[in-house]
Amino acid sequence: MSLNCSSPMDPRSQFAVRLPRDASMDIIMSPNSQNQIGSDGDPKERIRRLLQKVEISSSAYDTAWAAMVPSPPAAYSQQRQQGVVPHFPECVNWILENQLKDGSWGLQLPDSRHPRLVKDTLSSTLACVLALTQWGIGEQLIHSALGFMERNRGSLSDPRQWDPVGFDVIFPAMIHTAGTQNLNLNHHLLLGNRESAPSPASGGRNAYLAYISEGLGASQDWGTTMKFQRKNGSLFNSPSATAAAAIHLRDADSLRYLRSIVDPMKGAVPSIYPHGIMARLCAIDNIKHLGIDLHFQVEIKQALDDIYTSWRQGDEEIFLDCATCAMAFRILRLSGYRLSPYALTRYTEDGFWSDTLEGYLKDEKAVLELYRASRIMYHDASVLENQMCWTRDFLMQLTDPESCQNYDVHDVLNYPLYVELEPMAYKRNIEQYLTDNTRMLKSSYSCANFGGGFFLKPAVDEYNAQQSLHLKKLEHLMQWLQEHKLDEMRVAKMKMNYCYFNSVTTFCDPSLAEARIAFSKSTVLVSLIDDLFDIHGTREEHLNIIQLFERWDVDRPKVDFCSEAVETLYWAIHSTLCETVEKAFPTQGRSVMDHVVELWLDMLKAMFKEAEWSRTNTVPAFDEYITNATLTIGLGPFLVPALYLVGHRLSEDAVKGTQFCRLFNVTALGCRLFNDIRGFEREAEQGKVNAVSLQSIDQNNNAEQVIKQTEIWIKNLNREVLRMSMDEKDYGVPDAVRDVFWKFVKGLYLFYAKEDLYFNSTKLIKVVESIIKEPLNPPIAT
After folding, report:
1. C-alpha to C-alpha distance for 88 and 268, rounded to whole angstroms
2. Name one GO biological process term (predicted).
């Protein structure tokens, strides 16, 4: 082995630059370990910091390429020129001080090297060897590094190893350069002759070649390459590619970009910079997916405001990166910010997407984010439909979604946006959580914002605390059934389990226990009243319960009870309404009893009309039926009283206003249509009409076609609920109230997506018990 080094054995002080780290930096660098920085202390405090800053590992590979940039700017040559020194001596110093014990440079986990990163480590180590050899220093380090490479050369042909982007071009090029520097590596035995880069072509191929510029060197088409230079001076925010431009072109903007990294980071260079917007988005996404966002609302709002400002300013960090653009769109839109989808729709399968670096690399992460974003449709559904189709097809071709080990792809394909019920999603996300935050570009890197065990602990604690609370509240509700003799009625206990579960998915905020209780009680009562009108009640009982509400009195009824069943139900409803109204008074500043009683009376009268149709074999017109049926579904009596308990004032003008009424009516209509398409066959056997049978008559169509049309109608209604729920203009309706409607709609998909689970108790009990009773089985946090 021959070394072309003129310096002493280990002259580490030649380019040493020792500067204290600035604690106020927006990016915090870690020399090797993905968990070294901020790993101690309260996990919540660390997460709070990650919403403001980026914790990212340094890249030996990119640092080495920055270290190879000469100063004053001069063309790269095979021989060291007299008087030429490193433009970034801090980077050389970093290499001298950060070789690992085994002689390598690269990303290292706290306890061991990642088993699939040996090939990546060989690339980083060789880049560091070239940098030290260029400046004639670190002979002892080079000797140790070459020993590491010799011992691990078998990993170059190991199919289990992760390939850095462009490895098949860049690594052979570095081997060639090592040969010109008299470093006898003998790696031709493993790699054969140096591989040539693919011939330049248009679109994505040109982007790819620009991205791996350091592997092409003087043979690069620099005129085409520099068309990809960004406003910050970089090529694709890649320090290594930008360093190649600085070396071969003496490009001032490239040097300015590299200096913006090296100065604040004291010589350590990351794999990608800037990366702050994506990192903060990932931290927010982690927090929301694990169900701990209530602990960080202030910090999340500040981060989202910053990102929204960047979006409106057309920040290249967002709009020149497909995954960042898609994730920003999804998270911002779901958080109530108004954004046009047209920034995403340019990524068509056979259009702009194919001209991007991500498109050329068939970047699964980018496609996954595009698919997730395309599901956030409002009135602009047609704009995003095509994108959702091609991205879904792309992901489906990657793997079998039923057996996929990639949980992100599996979940997004198997759990559409409308069925992502928070408690179920939180449990699934916690149990499948991957604490490894390693990513691969041209070199591997880790970013704490992407995830880690410290996210998991508060999530597990929060979930366990909420499950314990739910068990206690469910026990309280079962006692309430007994106190009011409702447990003697048909399937009341079973219905309470379902209704409380529905309350948990609708009122997810842990502080909304009172709203969940009111919702659960009212939902059970509406269900029992429905049975009275629909199954076993008499016409006399129907009229009796209506009269009791028409002459409502908070103290004692002014009408006699005609049966024990009516008396039992009335007093249970009376007690629940009085309790709910009393608890709502401090927040609302008024009694809402009149409104609540009005909602109940409207439903009861609509149920009576429906019962009369059945008794007289009357077939109503579809419009008459649907107007009446949106009342009989019972949304007013069981949802609105609970809305008064969400902790926000809901004024009388607001609940009578256009937006609240439309939000309510669209939700009620979707609920009714869902109920009717899943209950069509059962009700047809009973001789009852519903939306499906009446449309079949009107359209002279078979039921199957009507159901398909109605499902499209439901989908559009739900998109409208989503739009109104997330609209940043509240029109006097608080965000928390509007959010309840969207969560309720998502719950409908659980109960009605494929069948009416209210009539399949076995399946529904399993779902309820999995959230309310079954213990969490989280992975071991690392």
Report:
1. 10
2. gibberellin biosynthetic process
Q: What single letter denotes the amino acid at residue 682? A: R
In order of 11, 283, 419, the CA distances from 194 in angstroms are: 33, 41, 52
Angle between helices 422-431 and 276-290 (to 10 degrees): 110
CB within 8 A of 65, min separation 6: which ones? 127, 131, 214, 239, 240, 243, 244
Residue 678 · residue 755 · CB < 8 Å: yes
Instruction: Specify the amino acid at residue 192.
Output: G
Amino acid making up residue 734: P
Query: Distance (Å, rounded) from C-alpha 344 to C-alpha 358?
Result: 14
pLDDT tier at 190, thresholds 50, 70, 90: very low
The predicted model gives 547-564 an average pLDDT of 86
**298: number of Cβ within 10 Å:** 10
CB environment 492-512: b (16+ within 10 A), e (fewer): beebbbbbbbbbbbbbbbeeb
Phi–psi pair at 35, nearest 5 degrees: -125, 15
User: pLDDT band for position 351 (50/70/90)?
Assistant: confident
Q: Identify which of 88, 64, 68, 67 has the alpha carbon closest to the alpha carbon of residue 77.
A: 68
* Tokens representing residue 123 in the block: 């690339």
Task: Name 447's bridge partners.
Answer: 56
Closest to 635 in 3D by CA, of 598, 680, 600:
600
Q: For residue 350, what pLDDT is reported?
A: 72
DSSP labels, 176-220: HHHHHTT----THHHH-SPPPPPPP-STHHHHHHHHTGGGTGGGS
DSSP for 135-150 reads TT--HHHHHHHHHHHH
**Residue 690 burial by Cβ neighbours in a 10 Å radius (0-12, 13-18, 19+):** buried
Q: What is the β-pairing status of strands 54-57 and 27-30?
A: parallel
Q: Which amino acid appears at position 434 of this protein?
A: L
- Identify the weakest region by mean pLDDT among 142-146, 414-418, 540-544, 582-586: 414-418
Cβ neighbours around 282 below 10 Å, total: 23
* φ, ψ dihedrals at 85, nearest 5°: -125, 165
Helix, strand, coil percent content, the chain, rounded in steps of 5:
65, 5, 35
The residue to which tokens 């800053």 are assigned:
53
What's the CA gap between 291 and 294, in Å, rounded? 8
Report yes or no: 224 and 210 within 8 Å, Cβ to Cβ: yes
Per-residue pLDDT reduced to its tens digit, 129-157: 999 999 999 999 999 999 999 999 999 99
600's CB contacts (< 8 A; 6+ apart) are: 549, 573, 577, 636, 637
The larger pLDDT score, comparing residue 257 to residue 552, is at: 257
Q: How far is CA 130 from the centre of its chain?
A: 41
Q: Tokens standing for 59? A: 């890249």
Q: For CA atoms 143, 148, 154, 158, give the dihedral sign.
A: negative
Are 420 and 90 in contact by the 8 Å Cβ rule? The answer is: no
Selection from 559, 477, 458 nearest residue 518 by Cα: 477
DSSP result, 43-56: HHHHHHHHTTSEEE
CB neighbour list of residue 318: distance below 8 Å, 6 or more residues apart:
277, 307, 310, 311, 324, 325, 328
- Pick the range with the lowest mean pLDDT from 270-279, 395-404, 425-434: 395-404
SS3 (DSSP) at 434: coil
- Split at pLDDT 50, 70, 90, the class of 380 is low
Q: What is the Cα–Cα distance from 213 to 215, expressed in whole angstroms?
A: 5
Give the phi and the psi of residue 772 in degrees, each rounded to 5. -85, -35
Give the Cα separation of 395 and 128 in Å (integer): 37
Query: Is residue 3 predicted with pLDDT exceeding 70?
Result: no
Q: In a 3-state reduction of DSSP, which class is residue 430? A: helix
pLDDT mean over 193-207: 65
